[in-house]
Amino acid sequence: MSQQELLTYVVHALESAGIDYMVTGSIVSSLQGEPRLTHDIDFVVAIERDQIPRLLESFPSPRFYIDPPAVREAVETAGMFNVVDAEEGGKVDFWLIRDDPFDRSRFGRKYVENMFGARVNVSRPEDTILAKLWWSRLSGGSEKSLQDAVRVFEVQTGVLDRGYLESWAERLGVSDLLAGVEQEATVNEVDEM
Length: 193
What we know:
Low-confidence stretches: none
Largest sheet: 5 strands, mixed
Number of strands: 7
Helix content: 40-55%
């Protein structure tokens, strides 16, 4: 199945299992900023132990590869696991919501967006930018993540909650990266005039 079909399939599976979720990562930064090719789909999920069997049933073998012990461990440790479409090679990463203020904030701020004909919970643009900056800092300076943040900032600049962005950037230790994103977005805007 195509990436769009896989996204829709996973959303349906999560909703059928009663699992709260939010799509994030590059697929959302492509929606909110500049489209680019991405090889996986990222979900932040809130899965309870008793929802695991229903989730596993949603991804039957041999069509899908999912490791039940990895799912159980991720739920216990707020870690991550993935599902692979064995026929097409599409991959979905599931990140369990962590018990930290930023994860709780961004998960609570998700909103519904129409993606590929489906109503999908996605992260707000401010949270997409902040997550990209945090991931860039964590990974030692990912250029893709920084450029994704710049493009979302450029496209969404008129509707961004700057106070929220600046406050969380400071708390996450990425204020310098946010300043760089804003500066590059401003330079790009001037260059386009």
